[in-house]
Design a protein that fits this description.
With about 180 residues, the protein is an alpha/beta fold. It has a domain of about 120 residues: Rossmann fold (3-Layer(aba) Sandwich). It contains six helices and nine strands; from the N terminus they run H-E-E-H-H-E-H-E-E-E-E-H-E-H-E. It has a seven-stranded mixed β-sheet, sandwiched between helices. Strands 1-2 form a two-stranded antiparallel sheet. Helix 1 crosses helix 3. The longest helix has 15 residues. The radius of gyration is 16 Å and the shape is globular. It starts with a helix and ends in a 7-residue tail after the last strand.
């Protein structure tokens, strides 16, 4: 393994060209999750960052944020709450709609997911345009939580999402970034 764990994770992420549509370079974290060594390195990067912070919960965004978020919550001895796509939660929910390039989407949480004043780490696999991350943050804030930071494995800075999240006042941490362009 290289000496830089973040570069190791970046090198393990697979790029799938033209998926889900032509021109898109999909950044696939599946190889990171499949390999026990790279999965451990990834989780350890997050654990080392957050182990001394005062946090109460980890909120993971549907669906890949569930994978990393739940393991991270376990390692930090915190609770985990899911931020789901609309219509997937069985109890009373609060919803937040956000814009996509081709329409709108909605995320939801149970109304009793967090208590007022709890400090929550919000996590997903990547930040593209930032819409999902900001909608999830607004949901948590509406329920009274304090979102300590937005975290992701991958940042796609050319799409402006991490910048938009930062400009909304929410600190951002990502393990690695992929710029657009040929073989970025």
């Amino acid at each position: 393994m290289q000496t830089d764990p973040a570069q190791y994770i970046r090198d393990t992420i697979r790029t799938v060209p033209d998926w889900p549509k032509p021109g898109v370079q999909f950044r696939d974290i599946t190889p990171v999750l499949q390999d026990p060594r790279s999965f451990r390195v990834l989780i350890d990067l997050f654990v080392y960052r957050y182990m001394r912070q005062r946090l109460d919960l980890v909120a993971g965004i549907d669906a890949r944020g569930f994978i990393v978020g739940s393991v991270l919550a376990y390692e930090l001895n915190l609770g985990f709450v899911p931020v789901r796509k609309q219509g997937k939660l069985p109890f009373r929910t609060v919803a937040e709609e956000y814009a996509l390039e081709y329409g709108n989407a909605t995320v939801e949480m149970h109304t009793d997911s967090v208590r007022p004043g709890q400090r929550v780490l919000l996590i997903d696999d990547l930040i593209a345009t930032g819409g999902t991350m900001m909608a999830a943050s607004r949901l948590l804030q509406r329920l009274g939580a304090n979102v300590a930071e937005a975290a992701a494995i991958i940042d796609l800075p050319d799409l402006g999402g991490s910048k938009a999240v930062r400009e909304s006042g929410l600190p951002v941490y990502t393990v690695c970034a992929f710029e657009t362009g040929p073989e970025a």
